[in-house]
Design brief:
- The protein is an alpha/beta fold.
- The protein has one domain: Rossmann fold.
- 54% of the residues lie in helices and 12% in strands.
- It has a 6-stranded parallel sheet, with helices on both faces.
- It is globular and about 45 Å long.
- The two termini are 25 Å apart.
Amino acid sequence: MTVLIAVAGAAPGVGKSTVCDRLCRRLADLGVRVDHFREEEILTRAEFAPVAAEFTASGVVAPATLLASTAEYVASVQAARMDVVVADALVPFVPSLVAWGYEDDAIGAFLDSLTELLAPVHPVLVYLDGDPRRALRRAVDREGSGWLDWYVGKLAGYSVTPTVHDFDSACGYLDRERQTTLRLIAGRAWRLVVVDRADQLGTDEVSARVLAGVGPAVHGSRPPANRT
């Protein structure tokens, strides 16, 4: 059985990539076959070539293309007999769909199709929750002030609501994105593991809570959603 663990979070700087790295190392130490799908690999993985091509051409990707590429990827990890996939900021694609202007009904319909498509790999969404403002400040401290200008410009380039033009408006947009993701996923057949206050906890504590939350799914059982 293959399990897909998708790690998402309230904002850049909340610790997604660090948690993914630690989770992959821990699972590998346990003898689990892991495919680590890093955030930047969306543009280089063979199965997602159509996604990369559409995004490069227009800056947006059709939901049907996301679904088709995801189906190809699911088939590939099953064929490779991977035990676990750890995906950093990939599925459920909600932040991208929000940024591209899709409304809740359209995103919900997309998630219905995605949920059915991912059923063979038993999706688990790990959501690192917290204050977008605090997390974004952590990202700025890590990347430098030039990064914030780039990030605000990126969001400003989309037709997002509320509009983004500075740090405060970016935080307002991220809060909307957070609420949309958690609300829409909660009504679907995903195991949901939410780590509260991830922006205030140390990396060791966050990683320990994630491991505790995903352990039952990795070992073949799928209990109800929980918060840690």
